[in-house]
Amino acid sequence: xxxxxxxxxxxxxxxxxxxxxxxxxxxxxxxxxxxxxxxxxxxxxxxxxxxxxxxxxxxxxxxxxxxxxx
Length: 70
Known about the structure:
By secondary structure, the protein is an alpha+beta fold. The protein has one domain (3-58): Alpha-Beta Plaits (2-Layer Sandwich), CATH 3.30.70.20. The protein has helices at residues 16-20, 46-50, and strands spanning 3-6, 26-29, 32-35, 56-58. The chain has a two-stranded antiparallel ribbon. Strands 2-3 form a two-stranded antiparallel ribbon. Strand 2 (26-29) and strand 3 (32-35) form a beta hairpin. The model has no long low-confidence stretch (mean pLDDT 88).
């Protein structure tokens, strides 16, 4: 799952998450950032760590499929 949510009540619109994301997960709609490519997130936590308002939550659960038994 990786990037789980943006708390828009806390988000100041600084776009740091959009600027820093190495996987280009975020997009802009006007001045608002949204999660466009959640599956591309590699859980680096840069967006969560650099968000000055603590508005981004990255989940450690990636929802990876279990390996086949052979």
